[in-house]
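For consistency, the fold was encoded as tokens, as this record shows:
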Amino acid sequence: MMDQTASRFAIVSLGLSMALFGCACSSATNTLARTYATETDHVVVPTRWAGASVTDDGLSVVTYPTLPALSPDGNWLTFSFDDDIWIVRTGGGTAKRLTSHPATETRSAFSSDGTRLLFESNRDGARNIYEMPLITTDSGITGGAIKRITTSDRSEQLYGYTSDGSGVMFGALLKKELFNHAKTYTAPLDGGPVVPVFDAFGFETSSSNDGNTVVFTRGRYGYDRPKYRGSGASDIWSYNTQSGSFTQLTSFNCNDGQPNILPDGSIVFVSSRDGQNNVWRLNAGATDNGREKASGLTQLTSFHPTAEQLTIAHGVRDLTASRNGSLAAFVVWDTLYTLDLNDPNAQPSALTITIPSDTDSPSMESVNYNRAEQIAMSPDGNTVAMVDRGEIFLRSTADDRPTRRVTDNPFREADIAWSPDNQWLYFASDMSGEWELYRASVDLTRDDLDPHIKAAEEAKKKAAEEKKKAAEAEKKEGEKKDEPASDDAEKDTEDEDKKADSEAGKKGDDKKKEKIDHGKRWEQSITYTYEKLIDTSGAHRPIPSPDGRKLLYFVDRGDVMLLDLKTMASRMVFPGWNEPDIQWAADSRHVVYSVQDLDFNSDVFILDALDPDAVPQNISMHPDLDESPQLSADGKVITFLSDRDSDNFSFNVYAVYLDKELEGMTDYELEEHFENAAKEAKKRKMIDPVDFDAEYEEPDALTFDTDDAYLRIRRIVSSSSSNGNLAILPGGDRIIFSEGGGLNSVNYAGRDRKSIVTGSAGSVSVSLDGSKLFFNRSGEPASVGSGGGSVKAYPMSFTDWIDLTDDHKQKFREAARLLRDGFYHPTLKNLDWDGISARYAELAAGTRTTAEFNDVVNMLFGELDGSHLGISGGSSDFSPPNSRTGYLGVDVKPVHDGYEIAHIVKEMPADEDNANLKIGDVITAIDQRVLAPNDAGPNIDLVAAMEGTLGREILLDVRRGDTGEAFRTLIVPSSYGADSGARYEDVVARNRARVEELSGGRLGYLHIQGMNMASVRVYERDLYAAAHGKDGLIIDVRDNGGGSTTDILLSSLTAPNHAYTIPRGADPKSVPRDAYPRDRRLIYGYSRPINVLMNQHSFSNAEIFSHSIKTTKRGRLIGTATFGGVISTGSAGLIDGSRVRMPFRGWYLPDGTDMESHGAQPDVDVPAIPSDEVNGRDAQLEAAVKDLLSQIK
């Protein structure tokens, strides 16, 4: 067998100290390892990752600089790299590190005299603003003592110093209401109130030197989508601080952003109007008039990829300009550039920036593999395997056994499964660049290492053989003495000799085929070999049959394949676009599975996998989800999860007998049947090692009564909590399931409920004889008796070093492959994805931190010009402390002795009666800290003064506004989340009152915050309150980020008026023609006229809702076009736990229009403008009321 295996597969030998690259193994092993190390099927990744390239003088080249800032004279430049701020001359050279904190430091800005530097940092929690002095020395510039400028639990984006240098200007979302966008604020450097520059939404703000003009960006700016054209495209506006007026400077349908105002009043900015992000200049007083090219508009750079490059990561990013207007700086690809703004013919100048090599980030990281992502128990129950961070480990289930490493490479292994004879551990790996199937076996055991044990066993075996031979010889001798003489004695002797020779041959064969105790070898294993099973790209999730002779596996997105392990021939069982949940029946012939159809409904099927002509039998046949089928060993009982009687995705347990005889049995007959079935199941044992050369008789095929199975399904568990982790004991007598965090069981009839395990329990499997359950307990393999009892854990721990270079390469390969195989557009919009991915891999090679790496991956995803894309997570050396800032629920303005209350938010602490606070009151002290000690205005911002007050009772000193009376009050501040929720409700109430006012009480108003069930319940509540008895309704989905509930809302809004009812005693003349019994509808219905408010921040399912209103002609759309971001998305994990969004399903209008990049268009187009926001006017709401009233006159 091994000879044949060796000839079919390439064998790789692994040991405890082996690394895939350059291990001390056989020459054949080394050859294969080198092949994998250099293989570049889909992504070509450079050999260096964590550090930059090194110059001849030993300096490292900075390979991923970001966010430059220029000194006012244009001589110095700061930038972010490796999560720190660095400084270098604008001609390039060796940079000096200004910050060295483990936190993340990003944007920076020079003071007007160049002696101070502001920067962002999350060292104290949320990203806030800090300042350091810049000290000039003979060796350059260094930083001095650092001072915190702002104190908030909200992330802030630095824009620079105020024009007079006394404060900092920044952007933040400090108050979440209905519209959730950043505004621009200032804060004094020496402490004091944070105040808005203007009370309108805007970001990326830049101030003129005299402070009279600020320019800013509005929209949904997406640097990584230069091809985007839609309502979410960003534009540049200006604000005159003297007159309070706003002017829109750019309005062409592209992304314009990162404006920098120059001393002559012109601005330089980044625009995607030529298809790539480039630097443009707009003269003072000019606008683009909504055109790509216009008078006063000049393109300063023309970065575009060559045919060989394929991409330059969308062009220019991180634009900045010096205060004197002489120089601009920006990043393209991996290089910082400067541009002379005084020379109209100037060309960008690339900078070479180096850093001392001793500042390189560590290239190795210590990892403790101790948290199981997947587990698999061996058939004999004596060895457990797990996958953690893409590597396979195992240990004996005996007490205090060590953890052994099966695989040791930078790639990803997954989908572990034991062969039923305990010989192999199957798994999938992407070490070739694509998922393929492998199997591991034991190479070396403890016994192999101990000569004394081995010699003793050999001696014992030899003595037994000699004793057996002597007994046989003695027996034969006695037979000869008893036999009478014969004329055929010579012939008899010859026959005996032949028989002896034959027996000897048989004994020799038996010795060759001596049974190997694979279970014991795995228990005592130390090193392992693994081999590729088949040359099928995209193969994963091996599922061996119970007889060990066949194996199911998946290819790509869901094709199910059957592999004959003797011939190594595969055939397709059935094709698929998504993976089924599948398992073998005990006869190694049939499979049971659940799979979704194109309506995304899943049913349970049984199929004869060995018959190519077999037709799947639908067992469940229901329009709701039926999943996770589990079959008893005799095939008579199948159980599964379904949400047919619950809310979507809230599952309970169901079952059906596949032997109709069971349906007619009495209770006692059923009890007797299952008692016998359980006894039979206890006889099940692990199969002997599979001998493919021996004759094999297929077991009898199971038979199933499937014709009307869907009509005979019974609900086994009825619970308000969702069930999961379904399993069935082999006798079918008990069903295992999770509920509320623990494992439970019921009998075949759904009775006799027992608690088996409390606490976390996932990935449940059952031993062959049904006596034990194996499960994953919060990342730790564990087992328990199937009837309950004490839990036995099998903790694993293995500490080793990972090469960050290899680890990041693997992450990048995975991310690129996931989108290649999973993005909803089958041609990936005709991109050369492999080539583009290879190009971005070069850029990612220069990143050092998780944030930098994720930035590159997001730019790669931006090439798809799609929504619902992104990467998040990843390791970090620093965890910012949590801020416990409390919120009172007030809007305030600073006065001479504190903060005057301008507005009190309902349902917040300040609104409570015992707080005794009123509008006009002045808060003068918090917990005896005086806010304005010199009676000249507060010296601390109110939010900063509230730091650390969340959830604890505090003392407020207050001056009564109308009387001047001083008093004190106790109050318990709430969280930012509570404040946001209350502010949202506050705005909705004001809008409702405004609609009531504008319509004279004829129209109702409601806002749908999200497309989720919580919002549906609020919708139904508010629908009755807002619309009952009204002539029409305004439904607002502005700034609704999406979800999945459009069709539930439509069932409320589009139910036909097929009848109305009049109860006895009612006046028929007064009964509305839409009066209808409430209990006859699934959701409260509304059939009167509606208008829907939407904007460019209505996203995803909120757009589907808006489209549906127009498509069904149910109402009219008012506001601005929606963003055009409609793709169903999920997510997938990378090897380190990072998550990649997976937009896999496109949405199309009936005429075939892709909703992605095609937002819902308004019937009445009303833009939102800054001046209206400042004045508190909602022009879109007003237009919706006016339009709807015109319809119902």
User: Anything to note?
Assistant: Confidence is low (pLDDT under 50) at residues 1-52. The domain at 59-359 is CATH 2.120.10.60 (Neuraminidase).
